[in-house]
Amino acid sequence: MTHRVSSNLGAQETDITNAASLQYHSEAPYIHKVGIPPKQNLLQEFTATVKETFFADDPLRQFKDQPRSRKFVIGIQSVFPILEWGRHYNLTKFKGDLIAGLTIASLCIPQDIGYAKLANLAPQNGLYSSFVPPIIYAFMGSSRDIAIGPVAVVSLLLGTLLQNEIDPVGHPQEYRRLAFTATFFAGITEVMLGFFRLGFLIDFLSHAAVVGFMAGAAITIALQQLKGLLGITNFTKKTDIVSVMQSVWSTVDHGWNWQTIVIGVTFLAFLLLAKYIGKKNRKLFWVPAIAPLISVTLSTFFVYITHANKQHVAIVGDIKKGVNPSSVKEIFFTGTYLAKGFKIGVVAGMIALTEAIAIGRTFATMKDYQIDGNKEMVALGMMNVVGSMTSCYVATGSFSRSAVNYMAGCHTAVSNIVMSCVVLLTLELITPLFHYTPNAILASIIISAVVGLIDIEAAILIWKIDKFDFVACMGAFFGVVFVSVEIGLLIAVSISFAKILLQVTRPRTAILGKLPRTTVYRNILQYPEATKVPGVLIVRVDSAIYFSNSNYIRERISRWLGDEDEYLKENHQPRIQYLIVEMSPVTDIDTSGIHALEDLHKSLQKRDIQLVLANPGPVVIDKLHASKFIDLIGEDKIFLTVADAVMTCAPKTEQA
């Protein structure tokens, strides 16, 4: 009887224990396994990679499910966007475009003459470049606001690179031919980048480097204008600030012309005042837009009635009348200058492209519409290819004119066509009137235009945000100002690449801790209240793991383990038994990265530490399975979240 009772009691205790166990297991949270993506064959994987790299915007989506005739129409419209938006064009839009076109024409005509001199070309070449290229762009471009024509930075760059090869004074014919050749290859470069969808290459020139380069170029351009502003005859061909200032001060006693200085400084003050008025009151945007033309008109009239040119005031002289002559036969397609023209064209084309795309994106964002960067490159390239055959030099989007175009109320690229028509009338009828225009006024116009390229606020913001970016900015700036434009450009590109390499080879890593009253694990430096889990070190890698950084990541994790072990020994705390690597930010891994993980695993085994991975992405987990790394560490060492990994590992550390 006693034995039976005791047996019943034992059975009841066993039932209670089993019930408690079942209850515990039913309350324990379910731990999800990391999913493995479906297998793709080599062709599917290659196709997906190419599509994401070169066709991320899916440019062919508008052709889907369309009849053949409609596909043809869409194809033509994609090449010539004017055929699409032109169907909805109306008189209201034309009024806005007409006013905007007339306004930017009044700004571009004096600027074009000055920029042509900056490129060491004849004044008419500047005007030609605001006639043909804007028309081509109006038919092929997708930006509604960008105003096309010569710009200061590209003119200076082109002039500097060209005169390094040919003396523009001694050999003007060969110099002009090389300029057209460079323009042709600048256009070919832009077309190829757009056609092969390689526009992402221009993004390698960082914003900070562009800010520094533009500011340095603005100062260099302004210094170059001291020749015209002060009436100096013998001026250095170098562009660095030291050479220019030596040239200026060495002629102070006998080379300066006081009449020229009076004209130049007076109108420079007028132009800067007009610019200030337009900036203070946006409704008066037309004041700085029309100020250059007023300055040219008044100064030309003043020189004509006073015969100031006989007092050694340098004037523009004759400007060739008529429309653009053909220059196809002047382009170097053979000979030694072919390679030189190609090299100069590629550099000038990339800079022109960078400026134009930045301007187009800026105004598209302001008006809330999209531009296709690759189509823009093709349009900009085609206009320069055609321009090189019609006596034009490299044209691109001008920020000052585009800003005026935007504020004048343009609706479409028709404003560029209106501007081209005004330039055509100027070439046919008005060019003789510019004969007495003083060079000093052109210098004043250029100086007032490039002042806006110096963005001090942007430089200060760059300093506050990223010190390395500021180094890139200042490197490009000082390179342009103290050495040359091409050296400054080289420094800008080099520092941009250096930053990319630094970020790739030395990615950020962090130790994670658990935030109080949550299952969230975050960087302990960002969240000091986050606590480490006893016996567990949680590390996050904030980059893909490639051959360029795999050894650094392995060594960095090993150093952290060593530092943590020393700290725990000093404080008599339990040793590390688990290393959890949070892999959410790890977008990819190559064979070198997998070998690094294998080496890390072997090293940890010798120290009796288990390697655990948390949330590897689809690409990463697929490669880890393919390499048999999962078999090496065990399927049970892969978790969906850090919390799951800790929940599985932490009880074991407590038992140990």
Please give a structural write-up.
- With 656 residues, this protein is mainly alpha-helical.
- The strands form 2 sheets. The chain has a 6-stranded mixed beta sheet with strand order 4-3-5-6-7-8, sandwiched between helices. Strands 1-2 form a two-stranded antiparallel sheet.
- Helix 24 links the parallel strand 6 and strand 7.
- Helix 13 runs parallel beside helix 19 and helix 20 packs antiparallel against helix 21.
- The longest helix is centred in the middle third of the chain and has 31 residues.
- It starts with a helix and ends with a helix.
- The N terminus is likely disordered.
Percent strand equals 5-15%
- Pairing-aware structural class of the strands and helices? mainly alpha
- The total beta strand count reads 8
Low-confidence stretches: 1-27
Report the principal-axis shape. Answer: elongated
Q: Residue share in helices?
A: 55-70%
**Tally of DSSP helical segments:** 27
- Rounded radius of gyration (Å): 34 Å
Side by side, the strands of the main sheet go 4-3-5-6-7-8
**Mean pLDDT over the full residue set:** 89
How many angstroms does the end-to-end distance come to?
A: 44 Å
Major β-sheet profile: 6 strands, mixed
